[in-house]
Design goal:
12 helices; about 375 residues; 4-stranded mixed beta sheet; single chain
Amino acid sequence: MNKLFNNKYKNFIIKSIFLSILMVSILVVIIIYMNFNEEEDNYQKAFEWQNQTKGVVSLTTKISEPLKTKMTHYFIENSDVNSLMFGSSTIMGIKNEFIKDLSTFNAAKNSYPLNKSISDAYYYINKYEKIKYVIIGFDWSIGLIFHPYNIIKDNYAPLGKSEEISLKNKIKDALTYRRFSITIDKIINDIFIANDKSITYKCPTENETIGNDSLFDTDFPLRCHGFRADGSATFQNQKIVNKNRFKDYLEGGLINYKAHLINSKGLFEDKYFEDFKEIDSLLKQRNGKLIVISPPILSGITKLLENSEVGNYLKDLRININNKFKQNNIDFYDFSEAEKFGCEIEEFMDVHHAFPSCYKKILQDLAINH
């Protein structure tokens, strides 16, 4: 009797384990299918929807760069864009409406170094005669101007293809609690909220702006986490800097920012100015010009760094930059002391990312096309 019971118990345990593995496997397949099988024509659908509604298409980090590249091409070809911005996420807070008298698309990408921004500028200027103005971010705070000089003019095109993700990494991602939670939320939303896949919703922090989560996977559902129709970012996954976070930055000694200056000694490749001059010359032939900006830093931090042990490096760097642009007759604006423009610490999400409200203050009296 005991032996029979034991055999039944063992069979039950084995079947339970097998069913559990099967259910987990099915769930992993569902998660992978839902999160890693974006249709190529969804890009076209997304941009057409944005062009019509001026809304925000939500996304996930893995498609951020290729989406921005495809988005840039689409909006140049299907709108009156005559001005482009290149740089890193530090200038993604700039909206088209802040640039007077120009139709500007913000083509900035995450962690994009200066050499890639310049290469992109050459590409789009040569491809589109309608581009008359180019704005390039000159990031000293996060070290993007200190990368090795590597400008590509020929046989170059910005990355427009999603990075291929291995099956192993897809499975690892699918097994995380975060991805599981996101997928379950999407299923619940589809069943109980959104039978219509074209569902839109009002963005929680964007006045009169609507969002759409149906075209791409998003890490933050119903949050309008993505790019506006002018290419600027909503930064919906970030928190504002408060007094406690500001204190943490100071107590942390701003180590990363100082490290860039120590490693570089505040020196960068002069060759960049040959490219700036060439780009400016090409644009002036179209009655436009190049504008270079040093993005805003959290209020008070630039002066704090100048009064620290790396102060001489930073002071020399800023003087050198200003002199070089003046010598080459190129428009340069240094916004790194954000407090001079009335930006508060609450208008940043960290030391080097300013929200649109700060950029609005900075750019409100600036007419860059004069």
